[in-house]
Design goal:
The chain is α/β, with parallel strands linked by helices. 32% of the residues lie in helices and 24% in strands.
């Protein structure tokens, strides 16, 4: 496996990363939990060290499975990439931009683009819990949010 440094961050990533959208299930039909976890573990066993996920993937399920897959492994050799800014649980209190209605096992779930400071902090705390870790290697804005000033989003990122 090849590894590359991300810009001048010092973060060294595997050239191929594990994209965990499909294991979350929403919009893809999903997989068996044990098979999804095994696929992450097999990727790590073969030198892939970079795992990309997001809270939106399966409404948290993808992050939970990534957390289960890395439990008991040397976390310092794994780079966790996750995102923020897509809110589906109503915690945005009507703030942000309506994006679309996601299907949650036959139930419509409204998804908003929202990157407000308090929401971002709440999302990151929830991601850390689901991932079973105390740090995220790379945090990414999933979708821009025209209703939140970029200064507010950047202030939250600086605090983190």
């Amino acid at each position: 496996m090849e590894y590359r440094t991300l810009g001048n961050s010092g973060l060294r990533l595997s050239a191929i990363s594990y994209g965990a959208f499909a294991i979350g299930g929403n919009m893809w039909g999903g997989n068996e939990r044990k098979d999804s976890i095994a696929s992450v573990q097999a990727s790590l066993d073969h030198g892939m060290t970079t795992l990309d996920t997001a809270p939106f993937y399966g409404f948290g399920l993808s992050e939970e499975m990534i957390g289960a897959a890395i439990r008991g492994r040397d976390r310092s050799g794994i780079q966790l990439l996750t995102k923020f800014g897509l809110v589906w649980d109503g915690s945005n209190e009507g703030k942000g931009e309506f994006f679309f209605d996601a299907d949650d096992q036959g139930r419509k779930r409204p998804v908003y683009r929202y990157a407000g400071k308090q929401s971002l902090m709440r999302e990151v705390e929830a991601s850390l819990k689901r991932l079973g870790t105390d740090y995220i290697d790379l945090l990414q804005l999933h979708w821009p949010d025209a209703t939140t000033p970029i200064d507010e989003t950047m202030e939250a990122l600086a605090l983190l």
